[in-house]
Amino acid sequence: MSFERGRHHTGRIRHDVDAVVIGTGAGGGMACLELARAGARVLALEEGPLLTQEDMVQREDVMFPLLYQERGERMTADYAIRVMGGRCIGGSTVHNTNLCKRAPDAILEAWERQHAVSGLRASDLAPIYDSVERELSVSAIPPELRNENNRILERGVARLGLRGGGLRHNRVGCTGSGFCELGCPFNAKQNSAKVLLPEASGLGAQIWSDAHVTRIVHDRSRVQGVEAQLLGADGAPRGELVVRAPLVVLAGSAIGSAAVGVNSNLPDPYGRLGHGLRLHPGTVIVGLFEQRVEGWKGIPQSYECTEFLDFREGSQRRVWITTAFAHPVGASVMLPGFGGDHRAWMLQYPYVAALTAMVHDEGEGRVSLRSDGRPHIHYELGERDRQQLVLGATACARILLAAGARRVLVPSVPALVIERESELDRIGAVLRPGSAPLSSVHPMGSMALGDDPRRAVVQSSGEHHQLQGLFVLDGSLFPTSLGVPPQLTIYTLARHLARHVIERLRRTA
Amino acid sequence: MVGMLWSRRRLMIGAALTGAAALGGVWGLRSSGYSLPAELAGELRVLSPAQFVVVNAVGRRILAPVDHDVGRFVDGYLTGMNRADQRDVLLLIGFVEQLAPLLEGYARRFTALKAAEQDEVLAALESNPSAQLRAGFQALKSLALMDYYRRPESWAALGYDGPVVDFLNR
């Protein structure tokens, strides 16, 4: 297996290949592998570094700058929502919590019915999901591996008679160390970096780290390749990579792909490029227990509550609940206030459980560019989505109380502490953007697919409506929020649509 | 979840930035009284001695009752930022020192206030109607908390075990 580290190169380097893939996460990794399996000369570019098991030191201050876009500090333009995204070989699959859920049938039906998406029915995708799940060793998380934080969620859900269940993941050999979001030093994650890219490399794919794509080269009707900066360890450009190729696969995440597209001045006659962004915005609710929870230990997320998730059209039950726990830096930053009050909560750290409510959002945002070329995320939480957040946060608080929490903290400013059910209706007043920490780990939908070029950036095949040879194969494709963790569907769509890329390559040749 | 820090985004736009920039001259005039040992001052790469003192003062209130100076960490963190972001952070520090107390009715700079008065100024920033000022406060808070809670010596009080891999010997 060989990867090129861009940071080791200077000057101007040129390559001629059949296809260049931008991004190495779930979509990019799968596209790279499928192209390599088809015998194509493929080159994949990743903006972030190449990391190995030895780099995963389980320290927040060390790992966040290595694993995440903008050190994990990327915010929406109004500073209300932190948007997390991966930035290393393997993309977000290196730091995510490995949850594997298929796209709900109702979502796929809505894509077909309302967004003119063809060829993506549940029956079309089922065999592809099957193959991806086999290859990534997807399995149910054994109940005995459920940590106390997840058992609290399970207990509260059961006592309230809500709908809930165990989750599936793509880990093998997990030691339960609990540092998944900081990368796995035990290489247990069966992700793009471990499973897909090594095989692609073995088949001849060239995979470059530290390569920031600045522009897709095109003549407004066909793509011709890409231009990238090679970044040093300090992030400063130190070289240039120019790749000529008749095919370009854009898979740099819903934020990154749209930003590259805008910077490349892609044809956009209907003004859809970068629009339609969804975030699954979420908040965290904390419960204080008598017994030690030690939520940092074990598999972080292994149980879910789906009581408030109904994917039927017009539903106003659009919130998914699972666990959320952070190591000390993350926990301390999330807690409101400062000084003595803040310290008092931190000293309760082993005794707290944390749940998150994540909204299957209706509202749309947009990706544009800052004057310095970095992505600018415009997204304002609409009132209907805020009400869903309140619904979910209130449910989290009720679940925690039912599970035995002495107190529940809503980390708003000012902080709201709840000790009994009768106080739950206070949550709606404090849970507003800017007054409570919100985050997004599932950005999607900035270059939607669909057969109507007035509403979609790319065709149902994944190929750009106006630019031949440009394919989008990542979460940007989703015409709506997915409502479930997206990684499995991104892997699957990338595999399913890669056949169109290969077909285009054959016709081009 | 490192938190809302400054890097790669503009914090002090709008009134806050304008106000801080307008006070640039005042900062220069009122920069006496921030002396540091020459050796320490010589080690700073981005912060001036005055800014170093302000950052430490803010950090102490964020972390109270823990007594911990965050200035060196913040100075090191800033070296990883581009110049535009560094400039914004330095303006923010100047704003906290010079302008934020005025908004709460204090004619003295932040570092000259009593602890309770400093807390009042910081609390006003945390709940300020301006998203930029709230983000600025959150950024200062995040840096202070990151510096303290990343340290293994802070973990025992939390009952936190820390990494299971021996990262120092890898």
List the helices and strands and how they pair.
The complex is a heterodimer of chains A (509) and B (170).
Chain A: E1 4-5, E2 11-16, E3 19-22, H1 26-37, E4 42-45, H2 60-67, E5 81-83, H3 105-115, H4 122-135, E6 139-140, H5 148-160, E7 164-166, E8 168-169, H6 192-202, E9 206-209, E10 211-218, E11 223-231, E12 237-244, E13 247-250, H7 253-263, E14 275-277, E15 282-288, E16 303-305, E17 319-323, H8 328-334, H9 339-346, E18 352-359, E19 365-369, E20 375-378, H10 383-402, E21 407-410, E22 416-418, H11 427-430, E23 438-440, E24 470-472, H12 487-508
Parallel strand pairs in A: 1-9, 2-12, 3-4, 3-13, 4-9, 5-23, 13-24
Antiparallel strand pairs in A: 6-8, 7-16, 10-11, 11-12, 14-19, 15-18, 15-21, 16-17, 17-18, 19-20, 21-22
Chain B: H1 14-22, H2 24-29, H3 38-43, H4 49-63, H5 71-79, H6 83-103, H7 115-126, H8 131-149, H9 152-155
How many helices of chain B in DSSP terms?
9
* Global mean pLDDT of chain A: 97
Can you tell me the residue ranges of chain B where pLDDT is under 50 for at least 5 consecutive residues?
1-15
The radius of gyration of chain A is: 22 Å
The SS-based structural class of chain A is alpha/beta
Shape of chain A: globular
Content-based structural category of chain B: mainly alpha
Q: What is the averaged pLDDT score of chain B?
A: 84
- Kindly report the greatest chain-chain contact and the residue count on each side: A-B, 58 and 46 residues
Oligomer: heterodimer
What is the count of β-strands of chain B?
0
Low-pLDDT residue intervals, each spanning 5 or more residues of chain A: none
Let me know the largest β-sheet of chain A: 7 strands, antiparallel
Total strand segments of chain A = 24
Tertiary shape of chain B: globular
| N-to-C series of helices and strands of chain B | HHHHHHHHH
Strand order of the largest sheet of chain A: 7-16-17-18-15-21-22
